[in-house]
Amino acid sequence: MNGLFITFEGGEGAGKSTQIARLADRLRTEGRDVVTTREPGGSPGAEAIRHVILSGAAERGGVRLEALLFAAARNDHLEQLIRPALRAGKIVLCDRFVDSSRVYQGAGGGLDPAFLKALEHVTIGATMPDLTIILDIDPVEGLRRADIRRGTASADRFEKERLEVHARRRASYLDIAAHEPDRCKVIDASRPADDIAADIFALVESRLAESETRVQEDALVN
Ligand code: TYD
After folding, report:
1. What SS3 state is found at 58?
2. E strands within 43-176?
3. Which range has the worst mean pLDDT, 18-27, 54-63, 67-76, 111-120?
4. 151 Cα distance to chain centroid
5. Could you check whether the bond before residue 113 is cis, i.e. omega within 30 degrees of 0?
6. What are phi and psi of 58, to 5 degrees?
7. What gap in Å lies between CA 189 and CA 15, rounded to an integer?
8. Distance CA 66, CA 108 (A)
9. What backbone phi and psi angles, to 5 degrees, belong to 126?
10. CA gap 28, 22 in Å, rounded
11. Phi, psi torsion values for 191, nearest 5 degrees
């Protein structure tokens, strides 16, 4: 695959969508081909599953069923959108991906780690992100921002969960980053949006330079 796969992770109110939009704009200004997408969703089949999950319709089925639904959505998203875009050499920016399942259904939902790992294996295979930006924020501040953003809109069932659950998720993201420091970069999301955007852009530029060097080296060898 020639493209670059970048995922964004973090709790509620971390500012993922703002930062994805800013990064996409900046990369497009440089003439790069960028696709922005999100999970759960990103393809027609996955968007249909998203509706089932976020409406709470599957909640009674328990965390195992939810994890299967997220994985089914991810499978469709990968096949229909992500892999074709990467094959075409595009940069894919995805709002949430596999780490959300690890954090929300795994650490936060108590799902058996072996089950989660097996699901990852069958859905993702080798298509792990090249770079994962973890936007880290204190849950108190994150939830405050999420409330402001939501305004009068009703909260989905995940956003209604308690503060301690959010704190556990934050710790779980940091734990993933500690285990996969090359793929995962933690960004302090409590700072001004301009500073966060600048840090993210620098990380992405260096990943792009690395992958361009690799492509040139491969061309020399072949
Ligand atoms: P969304 O409205 O897209 O939330 P956000 O703006 O926080 O990204 O809702 C997605 C919710 O689904 C979010 O609370 C995280 C949760 N989720 C999981 O529990 N597991 C997953 O694998 C994914 C992708 C999302």
Report:
1. coil
2. 91-95, 131-136
3. 54-63
4. 24
5. no
6. -95, 0
7. 7
8. 13
9. -90, -5
10. 10
11. -85, 175
Mutate to test the pocket of ligand 1, among 96, 149, 160, 172 (most ligand atoms within 8 A of CB): 96
The residue whose CA is least distant from atom 4 of ligand 1 is: 12
Ramachandran category for residue 67: left, alpha or beta (phi over 0 → left; psi -120 to 50 → alpha): alpha
Q: What is the pLDDT of residues 130-174, one digit of tens each?
A: 999 999 999 988 888 888 887 755 556 565 666 888 899 999 999
169: closest CA among 111, 103, 112?
103
- Strands of the chain (E only): list them: 4-10, 34-38, 91-95, 131-136, 184-188
| Number of helices and strands in the chain (H, E) | 9, 5
Ligand 1 atom 7, closest CA: 12
CA distance 147 to 145: 5
Residue 150 CB coordination number (10 Å):
14
Sheet holding 184-188, edge to edge: 34-38, 91-95, 4-10, 131-136, 184-188
Per-residue pLDDT reduced to its tens digit, 7-66: 999 988 899 999 999 999 999 999 999 999 999 999 999 999 999 999 988 888 999 999
**Residue, of 218 and 92, whose pLDDT is higher:** 92
Ligand 1: nearest atom to the Cα of 70: 22
**Amino acid in the structure at residue 93:** L
